[in-house]
Structure formats: C-alpha cells, structure tokens
Specification:
Blueprint (H helix, E strand, L loop, with lengths): L8 E3 L6 E3 L3 E2 L12 H14 L3 E3 L8 H13 L4 E6 L1 E2 L8 E2 L3 H15 L4 E6 L8 H13 L3 E7 L3 H10 L4 E5 L11 H8 L2 E5 L14 H4 L14 H9 L2 H10 L3 H15 L13 H9 L7 H7 L2 H4 L18
This protein binds NADP nicotinamide-adenine-dinucleotide phosphate.
C-alpha cells in the first residue's frame, strides 16, 4: 500500500501524537476469542502498519502478559512508527475468570516496570488505567501516573470505563489523552456522561469492542451454540441462549444498509461509531480487534464509508433493544457507577 492509500490521521488528546483514525485491538491475538494462528496474527500487524493503523492496543491482563510479550518483536522493529498503548489495573490469578482491580500507586509503579520489560521498550506511549477502583482516590492514582510521565516511562495517560465526572476529576490532576470505553451499535451507555466530558476536555475516545466482540459482523445466528469451547464470549450474556437469538435478529437493518453500500455489516458498524462521534463533536479512534489481514483491510476500508442520515436513523433503535448486559458482572464498569 502506498502512502496515498493509508488512512487519515487524528491527534491523540490535545497535544498529539497523530495516529491513524482506526487503531488495532491486539487482545484476541493472545486470549479470549478462540485459537490464534501466530503467523496470521503477525501478518495482521504488518498489514495494519502498511494501512496507516498506528495505534496498537494491548494490556498487561491480556493473556496475563502474553499479549505484551507477543507484541515485543513488532514493537522493536517499528518503535517509532507506532503508538503503543497498554493498561494496568486488572489483577489476574491462575483462575482464568478471576479479576481483581488495583489502582494503588505502589501497584502502578510495579505494573509499569513489568509492562516495559515484556514489551521490550523503555517508554509506553499511552498508559491506561484499565478499571477504576473507587476505594482509591483518583487523585492518588493519577498522581502516581503523572510521576511516570515525569520520569519518561510513559508519554500520555488514558482511562478506561470511567464516567464523565471521573474523567473530569482525573483531568484536573493531569491531562488525559484518551478514554477507552465500549462503544458500538450494541453498547451506548458511554453516551450518558463520558462522551460529553471527553468532547469538552479534548480527550480522544477510543471505542473498544466496536464490533460488539464480533456480534455486529453478523457472524452469529445462535451464538450460544456456535461459539467454540473455551471462547470467553460463552460467558457473555449477549452471546447466550435467547439473548443471542434476539440480538442476531437486531442486525437486519445493519445487513440491509451494508448491502446498499456493497459493504459488510462490520464496515457499517465501524462507520456508525465514527459518525456518531461527529454528532458529539468528538475525536474517536476505534480499535476493532482482528487476527486476520483480510479483515484488517476490510475494517480499514470502513473509514471511507459514509452512512446517510436515513441510515443512521434506522440504526438508532438497535442499542435499546439489545438483550443482556455487556459483561456477566457489570460491577467494575462505568455504567455501574452511573445508575
Ligand atoms: N478497555 C477494555 O476494558 C477493553 C475490553 C475489551 C476489549 N478491549 C480492546 O478493544 C479491542 C477490540 O475489542 P474486541 O476485540 O473485544 O471486539 P471487537 O473489535 O468488537 O470484535 C473482535 C471480534 O470480531 C472479529 N472480527 C474483526 N473484524 C472482523 C470482520 N471484518 N469480519 C468478521 N469478523 C471480524 C474478530 O475475529 P478475528 O480476530 O478472528 O478476526 C473478533 O472475534 C481488543 O482487542 C482490546 O484491545 C478493551
């Protein structure tokens, strides 16, 4: 791909760097969505860079460090061409379903060193707090993160799954470049307060799971039956039993709009996030996750798809009709602190 074929760029936060308008979620390359073909995953990373997808997203929790280690050779080879984002706060054990949360300053100082080591780099471009622990004052955690910026270990700060008021509180301690929260045709609770706060502050919204963890691609008709053993989505309420069948039926307008554009359902879902952000006056960099070059290219092409206002109106009712929560346990999400 030549430079002319690469995607547009936007500024991350209010003082850069510029990144491609779509990033790449790398989580599935190590865990959660079934078996991974390492060669295909590495080829996907190459395709991303060729297409101008420069924001790469990982976390210490993905594969309990394995995803950061997997990325290390790519990071080494392309350090100055990518914007590397990772996260701390989700504490895992041998129990694959256990999730603790730590926002303690001492924990943050240990976690950053471990991520730097696994990634094989001396600086993280964007360091997110993956989940909020309300027991620790935000000012303490953000204060500790600000020290990492001063020490040159981290360039910019991000938060994930925080409410609008929490984002404002954190920003008052230190500028926050990005808010990473779930935002898609199926998941719009972020629009309640976080999106408005991000727009006001100039924080870039990084929608995670913009394809509804694959559901919005039309891959499932009866997900509970179709997911393979060990796929993390088997535990997701939206992917099981009656919910899964109800949610599959909601995709009818998505498929119709896709057909009208000669596009795919995935592309319509991605174009929707991009255009929904415009309505809110926001900069967004969605991070669809894929382990396949062809899908990466398909997703990237969605940055050039524009939906009409009639089409946006037809998609509007979907989120309110979705059956099932985003997580089996919603207690650590921003939504749980907004009710
Ligand atoms: N901050 C948080 O709490 C949080 C939570 C979840 C995820 N994330 C981040 O967000 C990223 C993206 O979210 P996600 O991976 O959960 O969900 P997603 O991007 O909504 O969907 C990923 C799923 O869709 C499939 N897919 C991707 N493109 C496709 C296409 N064009 N056609 C058909 N299927 C397609 C992928 O399969 P293949 O890989 O087989 O293509 C994968 O199963 C993650 O990688 C992670 O970095 C953050």
């Amino acid at each position: 791909m030549t430079t002319a074929d690469t995607i547009a760029t936007v500024e991350l936060g209010t003082d850069g760097p510029r990144v491609g308008v779509q990033g790449l979620g790398c989580m599935g390359m190590s865990e959660f969505y079934g078996d991974t073909d390492e060669r295909a995953a590495r080829d996907t990373l190459d395709a991303a860079l060729e297409a101008g997808v420069t924001l790469l997203d990982t976390a210490d929790a993905y594969g309990r460090g394995a995803n950061e280690e997997f990325l290390a050779p790519f990071v080494r080879a392309h350090r100055d061409e990518i914007t590397l984002a990772t996260k701390f706060a989700l504490v895992r054990t041998d129990d694959p379903h256990y999730r603790g949360i730590s926002n303690d300053p001492a924990y943050i100082r240990t976690a950053v060193e471990a991520s730097l080591r696994r990634l094989g780099t001396d600086v993280i471009d964007l360091y997110y707090m993956h989940r909020r622990d309300p027991a620790v004052p935000l000012a303490e955690s953000i204060g500790a993160l600000a020290e990492l910026v001063q020490q040159g270990k981290v360039k910019q700060l991000g938060l994930s799954e925080v409410t609008g008021p929490e984002l404002r509180e954190a920003y008052a301690v230190h500028p926050i470049a990005a808010l990473q929260s779930e935002w898609s045709l199926f998941s719009r609770d972020v629009e309640k307060s976080a999106v408005g706060a991000a727009a006001d502050l100039g924080v870039t919204l990084v929608p995670y799971s913009p394809l509804g963890r694959g559901f919005l691609t039309g891959a499932f008709t009866d997900a509970g039956e179709e997911l393979t053993e060990g796929d993390y989505r088997q535990r997701q309420p939206r992917f099981s039993g009656d919910n899964a069948r109800t949610n599959a039926a909601l995709l009818e307008p998505v498929r119709a709009i896709a057909a009208a554009h000669g596009a795919t359902a995935a592309q319509v879902a991605l174009a929707w996030v991009q255009q929904r952000a415009e309505v809110h006056g926001l900069t967004v960099v969605p991070i669809p996750g894929t382990r396949k070059r062809a899908r990466l290219l398909e997703n990237v092409a969605a940055t050039r798809l524009t939906l009409t206002s009639d089409e946006l109106a037809a998609l509007e009712p979907i989120a309110a009709r979705v059956a099932g929560d985003r997580y089996p346990d919603m207690s650590s999400t921003a939504a749980a602190r907004e009710e």
